[in-house]
Every structure is written in structure tokens, then in C-alpha cells.
Amino acid sequence: MHAQGYGVYEFGPFRLDPEERMLMDKGQAVALTPKGFDVLLALVRNAGHVVGKEALMREIWPDTFVEENNLTV
Question: What pLDDT shows up at residue 2?
Fold first, then answer.
């Protein structure tokens, strides 16, 4: 995986553009929920590192009480 241009990530057939909030698979847009996109982006930005569920919950839902099972969905 590598970042191409300003903050665009490419991995396998995918291209993730945080500024446009767009995930492409071989040139086709992939539908993601807003929080699903946020989780993917957090994981991609931390590629090669373990990201604990507590860290994800703090980053994705900073001001909200969220149960752990939200991450399984």
C-alpha cells in the first residue's frame, strides 16, 4: 500500500481518497456508510500497526458512547 498524490491511498485494486471520501475498486465506486469509511481510513492510515478497538472507538466516535459491538457491524 502506498499514498499517491496528496493523501490518496492505493492498495490492491483499491484507491481510497480521504478528501473526496471515496473508495474505488478498479475504477468503480464502492458504497460505504460514513462511519464505515471512517473506520477503513483509520485502518489504512495505521497500516502495518495493530489498531485496538478502544483507539478506533476514540477516533471514530470521539464524543459518543458506543458499545463495542458497533465495530463488529
Answer: 53
